[in-house]
Amino acid sequence: MAGDTALGGPQHAPIGSPERTPSGYRVYTDADAERLRFIKSAQRLGLSLDDIREILAFRDRGELPCGHVRHLVPVRELIVWTVGQERAK
Fold first, then answer.
1. Per-residue model confidence (pLDDT) at position 76
2. Ramachandran bin of 24, using left for φ above 0, alpha for ψ from -120 to 50, beta for the remaining angles
3. Which one in 54, 71, 74, 88 has a CA-CA gap of 20 to 30 Å to 25?
4. Confidence (pTM)
5. pLDDT above 60: residue 6
6. Distance, CA of 1 to CA of 40 (rounded, Å)
7. Residue 24 DSSP class
């Protein structure tokens, strides 16, 4: 799947390694699809795959990543706003 590249390669993919059919096709679960939707949404916010992996690691451990996310998102939003202001000049 081309998504392996978008996720940083199969060994680093935040959705893990899916099962395979006897013919070699990957079989993704509904949970995998939900996780991928989260990843794409987080990327649209400007988070890097490393940031997203950290957030998912919190979730996988059953911990709330709220404090970590609050630290990441405002910084990214400020950068986007600043770049936008510079381009407007």
1. 66
2. left
3. 54
4. 0.60
5. no
6. 16
7. S
CA distances from 80 to 9, 35, 42, 47, 65 (A): 27, 25, 14, 11, 22
Rounded CA-CA distance 79/59 in Å is 26
- Evaluate whether 64 touches 51 at the Cβ level (below 8 Å): no
DSSP state of 20: E
The domain made up of 3-88 has a fold known as Multidrug-efflux Transporter Regulator; Chain: A; Domain 2 (1.10.1660)
pLDDT confidence of residue 77: 67
Helix (H/G/I), strand (E/B), else coil: 43: helix
- Cite the DSSP H helix spans in 1-89: 3-6, 30-44, 49-60, 66-88
Which tokens sit at 79? 């950068």
